[in-house]
Description:
By secondary structure, the protein is of the alpha+beta class. Helix content is 56%, strand content 12%.
Amino acid sequence: MDTNDTIQRYIDAGIAFTNMTRKKAEELVAELVKSGDLQRGDAKDRVEELLERSRQGTEVIVFHILDPYEIDFPFKGTVKFVGLEGGPKLTAVPASIRKSYLQAFGDFCKRMRALCDRCSCHYVLCNTGVPLHETLSEYLAFRRNHLSR
């Protein structure tokens, strides 16, 4: 998947930003660069785009789209992993790396959620194994309760 498509997923999935400061925009983009979801060369343009959306009085929702295999890592036997973004191929016995993968994956999701919180964004983990209407219904219920406070 093209890196620009990945970052566009984060940007376009949201409704928009409120009161985004340059520092918050830079933090969000720096985390995306660190995670590999954004090329360093695109970072400046993305910061400016986030700030422009903020000036428009919009709000952002980050829909983190994940396959169930990314979430649960249920692989068995010996598996050859091929990176979709052109990374190196890795042959491994999943049972030997499952615990560390799940820990790293969980830490990444926590960092993304915390970053979204700091930037006044909503973070929604979307498991593609769950029907979309269920995920959206849960988010809309959260939103209704969150806004009524």
